[in-house]
Structures are given as C-alpha cells and as structure tokens.
Amino acid sequence: MVYLKSCTHLYTILLAYSLFKILVLQDCEQSSRQVKCTHGQAAMVKICCIGSGYVGGPSMAVIALKCPAIEVAVVDVSRPRIDAWNSDRLPVLEPGLDAVVRACRGRNLSFSADVDRHVADADIVFVSVNTPTKARGLGAGRAADLAYWESAARVVAAASRSGKNKIVVEKSAVPVRTAEAMERMLLAHSGGGGATFQVLSNPEFFSEGTAVRDLLCPDRVLIGGRDTDAGRSAVRALRDVYAHWVPEDRIVTTSLCSAELSKLAANALLAQRVSSVNAISALCEATGADVSDVARAVGWDDRVGDGFLNAGVGFGGSSFQKDVLRLAYACECNGLPEAADYWRQVVAVNEYQKSRFVRRVVSSMFSTVAGKKVAVLGFAFKKGVGDTRESPAVDVCRGLLGDRAHVSVYDPAVSEKQIRRDTASPAAAKAQAHQQVLVARDAYEAAEGAHGLCVLTDWDEFRTLDYRRIFDGMQRPAFVFDGRGVVDVGKVREIGFVVYSVGKPLDPWLKGLPAVA
User: Fold this and answer.
1) Residue 133 marked as a ligand binder
2) Residue 166 is part of a domain; what is its CATH number?
3) Is 389 annotated as a binding residue?
4) CB–CB of 380/411 below 8 Å?
5) 208 labeled part of a ligand binding site
6) 156 within 8 A of 50, measured Cβ to Cβ
7) What range does the record give for the signal peptide (predicted)?
8) Which of 196, 219, 254 is where one domain is finished?
9) Helix (H) or strand (E) holding 23
10) Is residue 362 marked as binding?
C-alpha cells in the first residue's frame, strides 16, 4: 500500500515540471551509487537500447531517471525519429514523458543514430524493435515478422568486441522461443572466440497513455533467463538495475519461454475480457438489460474483478489483436487446433462488435447513410494517446464511407494527415476521398449539419460537451451513437436525440427497426 501511494504521488509530481525538477535532484542524491555487476564486469554503467519506439524510448528514459549512475543510450537507424527525441516535440505522446526526458537528456540519457558504437560500448543491450504481423508468406496475418529483430541481433553480434561479456535483453513482444533463436545466432557469429552473450527476456507491460506511471510503479517486472550459472548471473545484473526503484517482491524471474509466453498471455486474456463483455452487450440490447449493471454485478465477484469490463465498440491498439493472433498461431504450430480456434474467436468477436456498430448506425438512419454527414468524435484507439493502430474508429469510418456517408472527424490528439491516411481507400479517387472525409477543429464543427454523431474514443472532453448546442446544429431526427459509454443517455435523450449506446436498453425509436441494415 505504501508503494502504491508513493507511486501515485510521484506520478502527480511528474506532471508538474517545476516540482518534478526538485524530485529529480532528490532522486539523483539517493541513487548515486553504481549498480554492481554480477556478469563479470567491475561496474554496470552502460545500457544501449536498439529501437526508439513506444517501448524503447519511455522505458529507457525511466531507467535513466531512476539510475543516474548508468549511461543509457537509445539508438535507431531512423534519423528523423532520433532527431524528434532530441527535440522539444517527442515522437511519443505520453503524460509525464517530456518531463522525464528533459530531466535526463544530456546527463545520462542520449538518443543517437550511431548504432554500432553504442552497442559495442554497452554492457546490457535491450532489443526493442518493431515486430509487425507478416503481411504475406507463411503465417501471413498471424505470425510475427522478425526481420527487424534479426537485423538487430546481427548488429549486436557484429558490433560486440571480442572478449567482452554482454547481456542481450528482449524487450519486444516476440513469439515463444525467440530468445533461443537469438542465442543461436549470437553463438554462430561469435564463432567460439568472440564476445560472450547471455540472452534474457524482459517484456514490457505498460499501457499506452499511462506508460510513465506504469514504468515508475510497475505491478511487476518480469525477467526470464537460463537456469545456469551464467544465466542466473545475468538475471541478477538486470534485477539490480530495476532494484533502484522497484521493490524486490515485484521483480519476478522465470525461464525464457515462460517470460515470452507471459507477455502474449497477458494481452490475450485482457482482450478476451473485452470481447466477452462486448458479446454480452449484444444480448443486453436484445433483451433490454443494461450491460453496465451486468458488468458491475459481475465485477463485485472477487474471482472476476471489474477490470476491462467496459463494453464498447471494440478493442484496439498495437498489441491486443497482434498478440492474440500470435498466441493462436503458436497453438496451431504446436498441434493444438482447438486452442488456436478459441483464441481466434476473441478477435472474431471484436470484428463482429465493430461491424455490428456500423450496421446499427445505418439501420437506424432509415437503412442508408449515402450522402449524409456523420460526425465522428474520437479517432485514437483510446483516450490519452494519438495512436490509431487497430483503432475501432478506423474500421467504423471505413464502413460508413463504404456506404457513401460523408464523415466529419474530430480527435484532439490525432493529426489530419493521420486521419486521411487511415481512411483512404485504394478504390476511391483522391479528390473523392477528400470530399467524403472532413477533419474538424472541434466537436461542434464536426457535428454542424450532421444527421448522426458517433462517439468512438472516450476522451474526457466528450463527457462535458454542450449537447444542446450540438443538437441545435444537427439535422432532424438527430442521432447519437455512443460506442464508449461516454454520454449521459437520459439527459441527451431529453434534449431530443435518438440515442444508441452499446449494451444499453434501446431507444423507443430503435425498437421497431431491424438491427441489421
């Protein structure tokens, strides 16, 4: 409890930069000791991370903050991304991250495109590169594309000096037994007389939007390694880094395979809960039950808990679908077709929920949205981020555009360029697509003259909008389709809207209409 309270306080200070500077000075005084190295070096003073994306950048910045005696270098072959990390406009939008980077950059945190030099100098090398899903070939749409990972492994092998011990840490989400493949590759390159490597798995569990808080106050830090003298020594070395700020009982050690599988399993189980409550939401609409009441009643059961039981238009983000499909593919490759089918169904329900939402919009508006303006509030996959990867809003917009609607989008964190890129159709001419998609400066502009309004991201500002003003500027009848449980259904209905909210009892207007257009 003391740990959780101190974490909450620390995060609050992070968001106030002037107070945060005081915190950093105190932290530096308390943590000025060097980390003892148990992997054959006198002192563990240099860390290098290959990859400066959503995982590598924030996680290394927090290590630099909490371990001022350790030099942390984040490297990437993308010069524009490195330039962004060295600028006042970071490439990753995360509350508190700017303050962390400003406090450490130029002190013990650097961002560089000189990959080979920093890898060669490092005692610990984190590999945090993109592992997208394969677009073609064997396992397309399910298996991980490990091209970037393999390239990083070859860089580590080639840049490492002979006779120097090095710990290589998997930070990316990878298939089970990827660490074993890295061990074989590094061993092949060393040829028995080069550098000595120990490979660890240290998956990251933070959530986008709360990354800094999650990194400062993790539920657990998971380290997987070999059950050998050298493997245990490497695990202790990495444990010593995290021990600067993470309590010992929250640092969990496992085998390599268990650590790799734990990352996939964690995301798959969270996605499963979302799909489960969304499947229940469809039944609630059909029977007149309220999914919020059902979720609250179920969540009171200690065996179930109330996390991830908010029904909506579907899950998104870079990890959930990707990791569920990789888990299914792993089951398939290991001769477990029934288990693979089970996990694939989690994704199938998510696709069904998005499709069901689009069908409800179309059927409610007299079975056609052709030529009608539909306002879309929210384009990121969740509040607090500008990330649109696998965002349900993208699929909903594409569905509406496919039915020839004119879509007007507003999101406080997503750029017009990104919205247009995500909604572009290869089949539509550029001029036509530009006319069909408008990007608004605020919610009121987006809704002006619209027939319907879809809420697709749970931004807090959408809860406090002047819906009377929005209603006055819309066509009649005016529809609200709430895909995130944001609006107060009773109040909005009193204004005059026809309201559909996922999992809620249907508006009287909708009860006589088919659910499918």
Assistant:
1) yes
2) 3.40.50.720
3) yes
4) yes
5) yes
6) yes
7) 1-26
8) 254
9) helix 17-30
10) no
